[in-house]
Amino acid sequence: MKLSYVFWSVLCLSLLFYSCQSRKGTVNGEAAIDLPEIMERGELVVLTANSSTSYFNYRGEPMGFQYELAQQFARSLGLKLKLKVVNNPSEMVRCLIRGEGDLVAYNLDITNAWKDSLIYCGEENITYQVIVQRRGKDALKDVTQLPGKEVYTTPGKYYDRLMNLNSELGGGINVHKVEADSVSEENLITWVAEGKIDYTVATNEIAKINRTYYPNLDIGLVISFDQRSSWAVRKTSPLLAEAADKWHKENINSSEFKASARRYFELNKRPTHGSILSVKDGKISHYDDLFKKYAKEIGWDWRMLASLAYTESNFDPNVISWAGARGLMQLMPATAHAMGIPAGKESDPEESIKAGVKYIARLQNIFSKVPDKGEQTKFVLAAYNAGVGHITDAMALAEKYGKNRYLWDHHVDHYILLKSNEDYYQDPVCKNGYFRGTETYNFVREVVERAEVYKKKIKG
User: Fold this and answer.
1) pLDDT, tens only, 264-278
2) CATH numeric code, 129-225
3) Cross-referenced CDD domains, in alphabetical order (predicted)?
4) Where are the alpha helices (DSSP H) in 129-184?
């Protein structure tokens, strides 16, 4: 939605005063760049961080809730979006004040320490910590039930809150601080979902995203006070802050805003799989002939290609994933276009398989230095699921820490798991930031294992 005529009139009346200030370069030591200068350059520079809630790269395409909102806001102003990814909130604020960005699109904590330098703007979010546990009649309903329970958490704010809560309750909570740098909060949530541990702690936003992967999670037990957070600009950018406030107010109930929120916090990220045909009848799917036809082009056993398609789409040519991937082979829009699928044909089974095989051939070329063909297939499957960048990051990490960058099992697969841990995705050898590696780790195993089952039961 474009900003109103009245707002633009106010902006124009203010233009002379603010442009005069900005010509000085700084005001009280802060960069003086406001909406008029930004409009003139035609580009909004947004600062954010890699995370499951803000921004990440998925299958070669930028994604993330805060990224999408920033994109929508920039579009409403008629501006191009330029994204700058920084490591943490403190660095965001420093970059903002130095003029290296115009807007922080991230849930930045509203604190007194930053109020003198920032204008908080946009939607005010409320975050808090919750106990993550499995659903069921035995799920805890009140913090007074925590004494006697085993709660696992990472060091830092979660551990500190649990220890304070333990003190408030008079002791009894068995708090386990998991200090291994290879374990992140998302790993602990996965352990809860899989029944390896019973309880961990996360913010409500992280918990909501993880519940879209694990519907068996209960995230209703709040254990902390509310923390307010929002976007922010410099004190010298009041017009930009006003524009962000106006946009959020007018668009928070729009279909586009709601679709973004639903994509990240509600849609099931793991569609249920079920067999369409019985392998006992000698067929895997209705598309076996197509798999046989095109698998030859990449030197694959057709049953491996069928296993990949099943894992991606459950052999449903009309399925659309939470991220927008379509068709039997679940290609992202940009990839489908690049591989030659005609517009409107994304759900055509043959077009999808043909394009998927073309993409696999490209991945085989990228990973041609992997000497063993079986290993190369695992790298190709991983890149098909995650995007090439995250796999090359994991290879670089493997090499850095003394593993073989050309072996998947127990080498590179270990480091794709660590890509959700900031100690690893912020490592200088990583170029593609945060990634939820658990999904890719499981994906490769599932495709390979299912292909072996198909090979035993279905003739080649």
Assistant:
1) 999 988 766 665 566
2) 3.40.190.10
3) MLTF-like, PBP2_YfhD_N
4) 157-168
